[in-house]
From TrEMBL:
This is Alkane 1-monooxygenase. The chain crosses the membrane at residues 12-30, 36-55, 76-96, 108-126, 225-252. It comes from Aliiroseovarius halocynthiae. One of its GO terms (cellular component) is plasma membrane. The lineage of its organism: Bacteria, Pseudomonadati, Pseudomonadota, Alphaproteobacteria, Rhodobacterales. Residues 114-334 form the Fatty acid desaturase domain. The keyword Transferase does not apply.
Amino acid sequence: MLPASTISRFRNAAPFGISLILPVLVIVAATQGGWFLLLPPLGTWWLYAILDAIIGRYTENADPTTEDTDLFWYRLITMIWFPIQFVMIYGMIWYVSGAEHLSTAEKFGAFFGVGVLSGTVGIVYSHELMHQSNRFERWLGDLLLATVLYSHFRTEHLLVHHPYVGTTRDAVTARYNEGFHRFFLRVLFEAPSSAWTAEKAMLARRGLSAFDRANPFWRYGTLQLLAIILAVWIGGWMGLALFAFQALVAIWQLELTNYVEHYGLTRKHLGDGKYERVKPHHSWNADQKASNWLLINLQRHSDHHYKPARRFPLLQTYPDAEAPQLPFGYPVMTVAAMIPPIWRRVMNPRVRAWRKLHYPEITDWSVYKAGTLPPPGIR
């Protein structure tokens, strides 16, 4: 186990900051156009898939009792990202909307790269920030989500996904045999409603109306409206279209990740709408070293559900028998998820093996697969 004295060194945090190269790739792609537009996805998804194949897995754990004071460099990586993303999105709207050397298709190609930046990095960092107790960090998380028009994700993730993962109340637990494209459309409709219901229930317990100023949806809406107005002010209707496109690309990446993280994994129903507690085996894990640099250990997902506030450098990995392991890191698995026949061929046997290992007493999985079990009560 790595001690705090080792973890705190800059050289150990530096690989997680390699995402800072991505804005450079996005700028080169936009200024050059053509085949250069492939640089952002090649420099993230494909590069890290190759590095995973070369470097392999990393199973060593850091001391989870390490104090925040020893994690300065790691925290800095996530806290500086909002100003970078803000400048990149709106600077690129200004540049690309008026760039005569880019065709309309190339302009949207450039903003696909911006969406890679705001999705692969920005949303992952916002996820880290929203889980912290520090108010400034939570605000940075909110600001990042507003720039991709997905602010409700904070509520949905904290109040719905974490307490209800693996049950029918959690929209983003992908069902067995549910293809990604169907999952994506379902989540786009269900998650905002689910988040609103959760906030409404929390306010009701305090004797407040759902429309009280304490409802964060007022903040979400205001931040998103300001983000849209700024895009229009800088780039007109083209600026708005480019902004919305990068947001869609970012959201697509987020939900691809959600799909992979819990596909087919369900908590045992104990009767009367009650379920077993969340355990490490209710999340798919990938401890490939390089892609965890890119995704700040998001792939150590079981421990994140065990200790949601645990900062990313301290997330633990588990033996394969305790938490199911994906055959590859997220960069490869999300591509597989886009092609349902390939995904099912790779993952369905693993889900069935997981069932036999952890729940040999369950012989009929039909209600789990159909998602017809009663949802747990709202907490």
